[in-house]
Design brief:
With about 375 residues, the chain is of the alpha/beta class. It has two domains: about 1-10 and about 260-370, Aspartate Aminotransferase, domain 1; about 15-255, Aspartate Aminotransferase, domain 2 (3-Layer(aba) Sandwich), CATH 3.40.640. The protein has helices at about 15-25, 35-55, 70-85, 100-110, 130-135, 155-165, 190, 240-255, 260-275, 305-310, 330-335, 340-345, 355-370, and strands spanning about 1-5, 65, 90-95, 115-120, 140-145, 170-175, 195-200, 210-215, 285, 295, 315, 345-350. The protein has a seven-stranded mixed sheet, with helices on both faces. A three-stranded antiparallel sheet has the order 9-10-12. Strands 1-11 form a two-stranded parallel sheet. A hairpin with an 8-residue loop joins strand 9 and strand 10. The protein is globular, with a radius of gyration of 21 Å.
Length: about 375
C-alpha cells in the first residue's frame, strides 16, 4: 500500500505503539490515586506534558490534554466566549476552517451570536488586513487556522495576533494548529495566539488524544468538563495515560531531525508537482506553502472516482478532509472554483517517510485514470 493521506491521519511508529503498550501493562495506575502506583502515573503524565510543551514552545502548565483536535477547538470557543461574555457576541473566522470550527459557529448563531466568515482569494490566502478589518468593539473571538488541511495555505496568525492587540485588546485569538504542529516551524511563545489546538494522530501519535494551549491572557478558563478536578480542574476525567504517552513519544520522534524531515517533505511536494504537471489539463488548487499538503484537480473527472480507482491500485489519497465523509468541501466552495474543477479536487498529503517512488506510482495511476476514464462532467 502507498499511503499519501497524512493530513487525514499518520502511521503510528512501532516505538509509539510499544510505549503505549508498556504504559497499559506496566504503569496502569490512576494518576489521581494517592498511593505510590498512582504517583508514578502522575509523574508519567507530567513528564509527557513537558515533552509536548517543549515541542510546542510553551510552559507545561499552559498545555492541557483533550480527546482530540475537535474537542480542543470547542473548548477554546467555550473559554473565550465565557471570558468575553461582556465584550460582545461577535466572532470572526474564515470560510475554510475545519468543520469543528464552522459547525460550532453555526450552533452559536442559533444562540444569538453573529459570525463573520472571511473567504480566501483564488490562491487560498487570507491577508492579515482582511481579518483585522472585520474586528469590531464587540468581537469576542477571532479563530483562524494555522495551516489549511485541504490546500496547505499557511495563515498569518502571528501578524493577526499583533494587529489584534491594537485593534481590540479584549478580543481573544484561537488557532487550530492541528495541521501545523511539527509540520511548519512555530512556537507558542512567539505565535501570539491565546489558544492553540493540537492533535496527536497528525504527527504519528494515537487517535483519541489532543491538546489545548491556553495563554496567559485567558483568566481562569471556563472548564470544559466539571468533575474530579483533573487537568488543573479544567477538564475532568481520568487521564488517558497510554494515549498521552503515545502523544509524547510521537512528538519526541518527530522532533528528532525535524528540520531535515520538513525539508524532505517540501522536496517530495515539489517533486510531486513536477510529475503531476505532466498530466494534461491537471490544475493545482490554491498556493499552499505547507510542505505536506497538495491539492489538485483533473476537471471533468469526479474526485470520488479518482480516489476509488487509486484505492483499487493500492494508493491512498483523499477527496478532501476525511471529516467530510464524501460531502462537498467548504474549502472548495469558498475558493470559488468552476464546477468542473471543484468536482475533481483531490488531496495528496505527505509524511517524512514518503518516497519519490511512491510519488511516481501515484502520478502513473492518476495519468492512467485520465487516459482510460471518460470525463463525466
Amino acid at each position: 500500500m502507498i499511503y499519501l493521506d497524512h493530513a487525514a491521519t499518520t502511521p503510528v511508529p512501532k516505538a509509539v505503539a510499544d510505549e503505549m503498550y508498556r504504559v497499559l501493562t506496566e504503569e496502569y495506575g490512576n494518576p489521581s490515586s494517592q498511593y505510590a502506583y498512582g504517583r508514578e502515573a502522575r509523574r508519567l503524565v507530567d513528564a509527557c506534558r513537558g515533552e509536548i510543551a517543549a515541542a510546542l514552545g510553551c510552559e507545561p502548565g499552559r498545555l492541557f490534554f483533550t480527546a482530540c483536535g475537535t474537542e480542543s477547538d470547542n473548548w477554546a470557543f467555550t473559554a473565550a466566549l465565557w471570558q468575553n461574555r461582556r465584550v460582545g457576541k461577535h466572532i470572526v473566522t474564515t470560510a475554510v476552517e475545519h468543520s469543528a470550527i464552522l459547525e460550532r459557529c453555526r450552533w452559536l448563531e442559533q444562540d444569538g451570536y453573529e459570525v463573520t466568515r472571511l473567504a480566501p482569494d483564488r490562491d487560498g490566502n487570507i491577508p492579515t488586513e482582511k481579518v483585522l478589518e472585520a474586528v469590531r468593539p464587540d468581537t469576542a473571538l477571532v479563530s483562524v487556522m494555522l495551516v489549511n488541511n485541504e490546500t496547505g495555505n499557511v495563515y498569518p496568525v502571528t501578524e493577526i495576533a499583533a494587529g489584534l492587540r491594537a485593534r481590540n485588546k479584549e478580543t481573544l485569538l484561537h488557532t487550530d494548529a492541528v495541521q501545523g504542529f511539527l509540520k511548519i516551524p512555530f512556537s507558542a511563545r512567539t505565535l501570539g495566539a491565546d489558544f492553540i489546538s493540537l492533535s496527536a494522530h497528525k504527527i504519528g501519535g494515537p487517535k483519541g488524544i489532543g491538546g489545548l494551549y491556553i495563554g496567559e491572557r485567558v483568566r481562569s478558563p471556563r472548564p470544559l468538563l466539571p468533575g474530579g478536578g483533573q487537568e488543573s480542574g479544567f477538564r475532568a476525567g481520568t487521564e488517558a495515560t497510554a494515549q498521552i504517552a503515545g502523544f509524547a513519544k510521537a512528538a519526541e520522534l518527530r522532533m528528532e531531525g525535524l528540520s531535515e524531515k520538513l525539508r524532505h517533505m517540501a522536496e517530495i511536494k515539489a517533486y510531486a508537482m513536477e510529475r503531476l504537471a505532466e498530466i494534461p489539463d491537471l490544475r493545482f488548487i490554491a498556493k499552499g506553502t505547507a510542505p505536506h499538503v497538495l491539492s489538485i484537480s483533473m476537471p471533468g473527472y469526479p474526485s470520488q472516482n479518482v480516489v476509488n480507482d487509486l484505492s483499487d491500485a493500492g494508493i491512498c489519497i483523499s477527496a478532501g478532509s476525511a471529516c467530510h465523509q464524501g460531502k462537498p468541501s467548504q474549502v472548495t466552495a469558498a475558493l470559488g472554483l468552476e464546477k468542473k474543477v471543484a468536482a475533481g479536487v483531490v488531496r495528496l498529503s505527505f509524511g517524512p517517510e514518503t518516497t519519490r517512488e511512491e510519488i511516481d506510482a501515484a502520478a502513473a495511476a492518476l495519468k492512467k485514470h485520465h487516459d482510460t476514464r471518460f470525463p463525466m462532467l
